[in-house]
Amino acid sequence: MTTFASGTTASRDGLTRDALTVLQPGFPGTTAPDWLLRRLGEGLASVGLFGRNIASSEQLAALTAQLRAECEDVLVAIDEEGGDVTRLEVRTGSSFPGNNALGAVDDTELTRQVAHELGRRLAECGVTFNWAPSADVNSNADNPVIGVRSFGADPALVARHTAAYVEGLQSAGVAACTKHFPGHGDTSVDSHHALPRIDADPAVLAERELAPFRAAIAAGSRAVMSAHILVPALDPEHPATLSRRILTDLLRGELGYDGLIVTDGMEMQAISSAYGIERGSVLALAAGADAICVGGGLADDDTVRRLRDALVSAVRAGELPEERLADAAERVRKLARWTASAAGGSTGAADTEVGLRAARRALRVTGADGFTPLTEAPYVATLTPVANIAVGDETPWGVAAELGTLLPGTGSGTYSGDDAGHAALKAAGERRIVAVVRDEHRHGWMGSALDTLLAVRPDTIVVEMGLPQAPARGALHIATHGAARVCGRAAAEVVAGA
């Protein structure tokens, strides 16, 4: 990389450009604002997309073309896990089941096919970088933010499906970003709100948390995302995103990873409340991160300017080595070159039904032997918990809409809180009840509502669309291992005998 004598105009321009290059900002709206296009001309190399930026696949393709007209090899990133976390289909629910459903099937070729088809759709819209897959081993069933986003609780299973997902996604020309290093599965706190902590010893971490990341690296994952978590056995002082021990010594050194390291969203409270996004970004780069993700919440030009200036000032103050910033910027450009060369390549034929096939195979049905499919329209009572920030509350879920297409006249309502069961009984009247829950084991009120429903109406059908940790009960119990639209469709087909 070309270097310049300190203090020259060329050096200052190069420094500012590198500082912009390592940022991955977001923006509001479904077209690119003028400030974003201007920053792309000044050196910004990545843009992050969220649900607010997407209205349709046609609109998304036009948006990415608008970005590419300003910067031909811009990295267009998205948080598209499929399943519960979808941006492409944020208003309808995903055509792909999430990781937990794929882990329940445990067919790595199916996982590869699902990831390839998802990647093909992203590439078709001009998206080149996906903040997925989640390689977290969900060893803590009470985890409030991972759950069905994980392939499962077994490290070997998670490892083989992480590798298959990386291979499938990248075979479609979309860079995978395996997350959340060194593993967010054994946490009971959501890092969107506070700093989670994992108190496992090094041997457990090596065997459990790190196994899927080793597999992802072996599979050629182009990027890895850091987690905002404290792991005292690895670094007792700094969260992983800000830890040189974790990002440089462990990930680069011990695991031999040479691709792009990107942070999780820097405005998340685990970082921003303790360090601020400017200081946090400087520390992340110094620790070994190459790209700063910001824009899920803070999505404006002022944020980009503040972070750019913070990085430049840190270099000039000697707090961030200029060589480290230049190395990070070059890694971003290297990935951008890879995605540009992969774009337009052979991505194979479309397989639009692979997600539904996978969702059907993922179902775990209890009580089917004595069950007669419904022929009359039921009442669907959806017991709704508060959505975590990663999932969001704008994406519909459940079985009511899908059952309504199979059994016209199906009624529905959503319930929460201590009186949910009684309210659902009153609304249902004489109709057969289908109770839909999501992580019953994590919500006491939800279990109580089911107790109330089943005491009065023992023929109630129960559909669990989160982690199936609570005992199966009801006249029929269907565990979908996720709340994607196709998971709801698969469950509805069982209920209606379709």
Number of strand segments: 14
Structural class assignment: alpha/beta
Q: Label the overall shape.
A: globular
How far is it from the N-terminal to the C-terminal residue, by CA?
A: 61 Å
Q: Number of helical runs?
A: 18
Low-confidence stretches: 1-10
Approximately what portion of the residues adopt beta-strand conformation?
A: 5-15%
Seen as an oligomer or otherwise, the chain set is: single chain
Strand arrangement, largest sheet? Answer: 2-3-4-5-6-7
Characterize the main sheet.
6 strands, parallel
Rg, alpha carbons:
23 Å
The pLDDT mean sits at 93
Task: Please give the share of residues in helix.
Answer: 40-55%
Walk me through what this model shows:
With 498 residues, the protein is of the alpha/beta class. Helices cover 41% and strands 11% of the residues. It has helices spanning 9-21, 34-42, 57-70, 99-105, 108-124, 155-170, 202-207, 211-218, 244-254, 269-275, 277-287, 301-316, 322-342, 354-362, 400-406, 420-428, 444-456, 485-496; strands spanning 23-24, 46-49, 75-78, 129-130, 175-181, 223-226, 260-262, 292-293, 364-366, 379-383, 411-415, 433-437, 461-464, 476-479. Strands 2-3-4-5-6-7 form a six-stranded parallel beta sheet, with helices on both faces. A six-stranded mixed beta sheet has the order 9-14-13-12-10-11, sandwiched between helices. Strand 4, helix 6 (155-170) and strand 5 form a beta-alpha-beta unit. The longest helix is centred in the middle third of the chain and has 21 residues, at 322-342. The chain is globular. Mean pLDDT is 93; it is low at 1-10.
